[in-house]
Design goal:
Layout: E1 3-4, E2 7-8, H1 14-26, E3 35-36, H2 37-46, H3 55-61, H4 69-81, H5 95-100, E4 109-113, E5 115-118, E6 121-124, E7 145-149, E8 152-155, E9 167-169, E10 174-176, H6 179-182, E11 187-190, H7 200-206, H8 208-211
Parallel strand pairs: 3-5, 6-10, 8-11
Antiparallel strand pairs: 1-2, 4-7, 5-6, 9-10
Length: 212
């Protein structure tokens, strides 16, 4: 529109306003720029946990529980495998307490993006409820990512199929990530397995490939 002193004076054109209004109707997202799905996939693979566990370190991790060496010898190889673990036993035997403490094995931190973009849609991933943020002072840190401790998400009898899907907020046009996506690079515990609204068969079949 001209200059004011040595500064240019800018204004949106009518076409620009129309485009902005159109985008606003699709999504009301305001925040750090989202990362692409490919970037998120690469970061998740690169941050896969590498643990070195022996009986001594495992006992320190579980120091507030009374456990036998036999149980630690069974748990250790399962943890080192970094695959799915099935803890079985009667009610009140400490399965949940054991599972909750597995994240103590990890002493490192991971990067979690605020949001992920897929085909023009925004998925909000960072959740301060489940992601324990670590404050840093570095100036050249990519502001699209948050440094966090590895998450531990526990879902019990309240787990329903809808919690495993993307959830669209109709008012804002922004998707919320499912709980298993928020738990990436951490620990996801299904507590009281079999007491969910969905059957064990349905739950396991849904994740047959990643569980394998």
């Amino acid at each position: 529109k001209g200059m004011v002193g040595n500064d240019y004076n800018f204004a949106l054109t009518s076409a620009g306003r129309g485009l902005a209004a159109e985008r606003y109707q699709i999504s009301h997202y305001a925040g750090a720029a989202p990362v692409s799905l490919d970037e998120y996939h690469a970061a998740t693979k690169a941050q896969a946990a590498k643990v070195r566990v022996d009986r001594k370190s495992l006992r320190q991790t579980m120091s507030d529980l009374v456990l036998t060496d036999g149980l630690l010898d069974q748990l250790g190889p399962a943890v080192i495998s970094q695959t799915s673990i099935f803890l079985y036993g009667p009610t009140g035997s400490g399965k949940t307490s054991l599972a909750e403490r597995l994240t103590r094995i990890y002493q490192d931190a991971i990067l979690v993006p605020y949001a992920v973009e897929v085909d023009g849609q925004i998925i909000q991933l960072y959740d301060p409820v489940v992601h324990d943020r670590i404050e840093i002072q570095e100036q050249d840190f990519d502001p699209r990512w948050v440094l966090c401790r590895r998450p531990c998400i526990i879902a019990g009898g309240e787990l329903v199929p809808g919690m495993l899907d993307l959830r669209l907020d109709e008012a804002t046009g922004i998707y919320a990530a499912p709980i298993q996506m928020k738990a990436n690079n951490g620990v996801f515990v299904i507590d009281d397995f079999g007491r969910q609204m969905m059957s064990p068969r349905e739950l396991l079949n849904r994740w047959m490939v990643p569980l394998d």
